[in-house]
Structures are given as C-alpha cells and as structure tokens.
Amino acid sequence: MKAITAWGNQAPQDLDRLRTPTLIVNGDNDIMVPSENSLALANRVPSAQLVIYEDAGHGGIFQNYADFVAKALAFLDA
Length: 78
Description:
Blueprint lengths: L1 H5 L15 E6 L7 H10 L3 E6 L6 H4 L1 H13 L1
Parallel strand pairs: 1-2
C-alpha cells in the first residue's frame, strides 16, 4: 500500500547515465501503466525506443504479438 499511495509523489530518478538500448512497449489503453508513463520513461532513457500499440491494453504485446515479435527481434539485432 505504501508504494501505491506514494506513486507520483516523488521526483523521477535520473536515468541519463543509462546507456543500454531499451525497448519500451505499451498499449494506449493500458489502465495499469498509463502510456504517459511509458513516454516519460522513454524521454528519460537516452537510448530508448518506444512502441505504443493502438487499441491495446496492458497485454498489448500479446494482442499484437506478430508485430511485437518482429520489432523485438529487430531491436535485438540492432
């Protein structure tokens, strides 16, 4: 409960030093992790790539598995 009630009440962590390529994937209708959070995270990780699936919820990678697998493989090959 402490984590839930404290969410959004603290300063974001400094992620500028992260250099590992990061793939961030979300659905635009995710009620557990709002897309705005994914966008904010992608903007704070220097080497992040963001994929937002339209008309997808928290299981967006499963709803769009063929596209996700292709994007994930391309990301890992880069």
